[in-house]
Amino acid sequence: MDGLDFAGKVAVVTGGGQGLGRSHALALAARGARVVVNDLGGTADGAGSDTSVAQRVADEIRAAGGEAIGDTHSVLDGARIIENAIDSFGRVDIVINNAGILRDVAYHNLTGEQWRLVLDVHLNGTHAVTRAAWPHMRAQGYGRIVMTVSAAGIYGNFGQANYSAAKLGMLGLANTLAVEGGAKGIRVNSIAPVAASRLTETVMPAKLLEGLKPELITPLVLCLAHESCPANGALYEAGAGWYARVRWERSIGWSSPPEDGVTPEALAAAWDRIEDFTGAIHPKSVVESLAEVGRQAGVDLTLSPQ
Ligand code: NAI
């Protein structure tokens, strides 16, 4: 494969001042993209701000001969970030939604503020940035969007109810934007990374952290951000040089004629069949998902994607 070149492209990397975002921003710029390095520069739990965090990475890019500006808005001010990209570079081709904070706490102790703050930065912030970039991407018939989600959302993780809900909210957003943007040349994919950063350094053993370089996540982001991006609406897990795709799996299931009705006892008796993944299928769309229900109801739903 030829080198993945980003000449002529403008990328916005949120939370680009450190950790994964910094690595993505440096790599995109090194390969020719003009980069908006966005970072509010707060603490890991989202308190405060520091304008030097984004600026330092933008300076580093420029010192290496690349083009970049620092942007210190919160992702909740997504429109201002995209405005900055348009004012400085005239377009926006790539959005890497990466900014993030943690407020981990067991669900029974979770406060309204902890819930709102985490939902705000991850989900509402991602929406604010993406929604502002969307009309530009539609108008130019081109866009690449990457959502940074998490295994905590995919599988659940103790103490991360707010974070898990936000991250799978981002995945749902990505899935629908992939459907809506496909015909306009926009591809939207998600990654669930594992990397050493200030978010993980206190919860993972030092030996493991040594192998979890953020630079090992960046190649996946670059593949998904490139013109040749092979995917749309996909989810990948990655870490320590390992990359894999994740998809939904559905059992063949059990059914009863709808006109007969179904008792909970009949359902309980069929439980093993409902749980049996032998010959499982992997629906890729709502149409594929509804096909079985349609068959059961005697209606061909393949013609009506609503
Ligand atoms: P990090 O803390 O090094 O980087 C996150 C950056 O986002 C920080 O520079 C922070 O200042 C910035 N940020 C926070 N709130 C912001 C806001 N409102 N507006 C703009 N910028 C803001 O952490 P890391 O690990 O590099 O995280 C990057 C992303 O990857 C996050 O979304 C995180 O949830 C996700 N992630 C990371 C994992 C890991 O193993 N490091 C695992 C799964 C997901």
Number of helices: 11
The portion of residues assigned to helices is 40-55%
Distance between the termini: 39 Å
Uncertain segments of ≥5 residues (pLDDT<50)? none
Adjacency order of strands in the biggest sheet: 3-2-1-4-5-6-7-8
Number of strands: 8
Bound molecules: 1,4-dihydronicotinamide adenine dinucleotide
Biggest sheet overview: 8 strands, mixed
Question: Averaging pLDDT over every residue, what do you get?
Answer: 96
- Rg over C-alpha atoms, rounded to the nearest angstrom: 21 Å
Envelope shape: globular
- Label the structural class: alpha/beta
Q: Roughly what fraction of the amino acids lie in strands?
A: 5-15%
Pfam family, one: adh_short
Keywords: Oxidoreductase
Protein name: SDR family oxidoreductase
EC number: 1.1.1.-
Please give a quick description of this structure.
The protein is of the alpha/beta class. It is built from eleven helices and eight strands.
What do you see in this structure?
There is one protein chain. The chain is α/β, with parallel strands linked by helices and 306 residues long. It has eleven helices and eight strands. Strands 3-2-1-4-5-6-7-8 form an eight-stranded mixed beta sheet, sandwiched between helices. A hairpin with a 2-residue loop joins strand 7 (235-239) and strand 8 (242-246). The model has no long low-confidence stretch (mean pLDDT 96). Bound molecules: 1,4-dihydronicotinamide adenine dinucleotide. Residues 14-15, 17-21, 38-42, 44, 46, 53, 74-75, 98-101, 121, 125, 148, 150, 192-195, 197-200 line the site of 1,4-dihydronicotinamide adenine dinucleotide. It is an enzyme of class 1 (oxidoreductase). It holds the Pfam family adh_short. Keywords: Oxidoreductase.
